[in-house]
Amino acid sequence: MNRKKEITIYDIADKLNISVATVSRGLKDSDAVSKRTRKRIFELAEKMGYRSNHFARNLRQQHTNTIGVIVHELNSTFITSVLAGIEKVTAEAGYDIFITHSSESVVKEAANAENLFHKRVDGLIASLSFTTESMDHFKPFADKGIPVIFFDRVEQDANNSVVIIDNYKSGYLATRHLIEQGCVRIAHVTSSLKRNVYSERYKGYKAALSDSELPFDERLVMVKDLSEKSGIDAAMQLLQLKPVPDGIFFSSDFVASVAMRTLKEQGVAIPDDIAIVGFNNDVVGTLVEPALTTINYPGIDMGEIAARNLINHLKGTSNIANTKCIIVRSELIIRKSSLKRRPQV
User: Fold this and answer.
1) In whole angstroms, how far apart are CA 290 and each of 92, 195, 257, 339?
2) What's residue 113's pLDDT?
């Protein structure tokens, strides 16, 4: 199928028998061109199907009004909410976004970074994959002075600007809540401890046990991916332990919901036998029975904050280098999955 030739300002100038410069100024609605001539230019441009090449014009001005985004997955309520926050702010500021995802692969993450770099994005917002260890693929952005803000899964050092929640505190609060419900043998189902979000929640979990003088048992910590199979496997493995845990803190609402379904199929009463707390405040947590206690992870706020700080930097109203770490507020949302029944007096 032959593609129709793109109409240019040269075609319009030829048809009207005027200079290319006049057409260019007329399309910008410049007062240097008479109203009558501007009207003729606009009418012919519309008739011929002319499209302004904003991208080429922006390149000449050394910017593209585009922002790159790299996320580790798309099948996530949290990531969807972050993207909604980013899009809201960027659209209001007149920026387009290129969204890419790594599928939890550092190889694909690096390829996405290179692709966005060559697309000449003005800035980058990124969340790291499970397997990312080296940050070398982000170095070209730093070398060119292109600002990068990391969110959620990050590497915190003196060179990176990050937007996160206090995962340590959140892990502590989730575990402490289970302890307050009378749980004394609390399991923790999490994911790659190489990533800050999971390692910090794990540290918070251990600290809450220690502060309550409860023993730490390595057998109660399960490092999984975030798949449905992992939720099933974690539930079945925990039921094989003697004694069985009376509380579980999951680092994912989705995995927690799958595990709850599996536990109930095995005759476990929730929360009477096992109290459960998840993480992220995904919509799935309100659909399961009993409703899932969780940590609210405000994705929209995180996306808006990351995008706003990046755009303010690009517009020269602030400098992200002066704010290396922004912590977004999170909170424990208590629902029925963790509330053990109290004996009647």
Assistant:
1) 40, 30, 10, 10
2) 94
Give the tens place of pLDDT for each residue, 282-324: 989 999 999 999 999 899 999 999 999 999 999 888 888 787 8
Tell me which DSSP letter residue 100 carries. E
- 47 and 143 belong to one structural domain: no
- What CATH number should be reported for the domain holding residue 83? 3.40.50.2300
Q: Closest Cα partner for 282 from 306, 246, 247, 258?
A: 258
Q: How many Å apart are CA 13 and CA 23, to the nearest integer?
A: 6
The parent domain of residue 322 ranges over 64-164+299-328
C-beta contacts of 96-100 below 8 A and 24+ residues apart: 96/65, 96/66, 96/67, 97/66, 97/67, 97/68, 97/69, 98/66, 98/67, 98/68, 98/69, 99/69, 99/71, 100/68, 100/69, 100/70, 100/71
Q: Do 160 and 74 belong together in one domain? A: yes
Do both 273 and 306 map to the same domain? no
Q: Give CA–CA dist 197/165, Å, rounded.
A: 9
> Which residues have a Cβ under 8 Å from the Cβ of 316 and sit 6 or more positions away?
none
